[in-house]
Write a structure and sequence with these properties.
single chain; alpha+beta; Immunoglobulin-like; 2 domains; seven-stranded antiparallel β-sheet; binds copper (II) ion
Length: 136
């Protein structure tokens, strides 16, 4: 065997080991930061989209772990800017059917806002999920 082939084999081995180590590191990183709510799905959409200054409607869709819409949940939300305290707007989102709950907020300033939702599921479990939305 000449040294060129040995070198190529060595490079492939080192590369494979590097990829394995990287994958491992990625896995342990994602294990360290567990998603708080993997079992149930809460998603947020807004109207208008993109948001504008003024009144906005937030639609919160709640699904169970099987992906089925959950109608008999109780959904409350907090709305405030992420970078400053604009006074928290609190309220309960109203069921619209088909797992959708809606709430109205007042976007009084451009920039990033945090929508914190708290969903009390029919089985008594509570799921929290925060979203960041932007008023461009
Ligand atoms: Cu502000």
């Amino acid at each position: 065997m000449n040294t060129k082939i040995l070198l190529v084999i060595l490079i492939i081995m080192v590369g494979t080991i590097a990829i394995l180590i990287f994958d491992d590191a990625k896995d342990s990183l994602s294990n360290k930061i567990p998603e708080t709510n993997t079992s149930s799905g809460i998603s947020l959409s807004t109207s208008p989209d993109p948001l504008q200054l003024g009144k906005a409607t937030f639609m919160i869709d709640v699904k169970d772990k099987n992906g089925k819409p959950v109608d008999n949940a109780s959904v409350s939300f907090d709305l405030n800017m992420t970078a400053m305290n604009m006074g928290t707007q609190k309220g309960n989102a109203v069921s619209q059917g088909n797992g959708r709950y809606s709430a109205v907020g007042n976007m009084s300033m451009r920039g990033p806002w945090r929508v914190s939702t708290k969903v009390s599921m029919p089985d008594g479990s509570i799921v929290n999920k925060d979203f960041t939305v932007n008023v461009p």
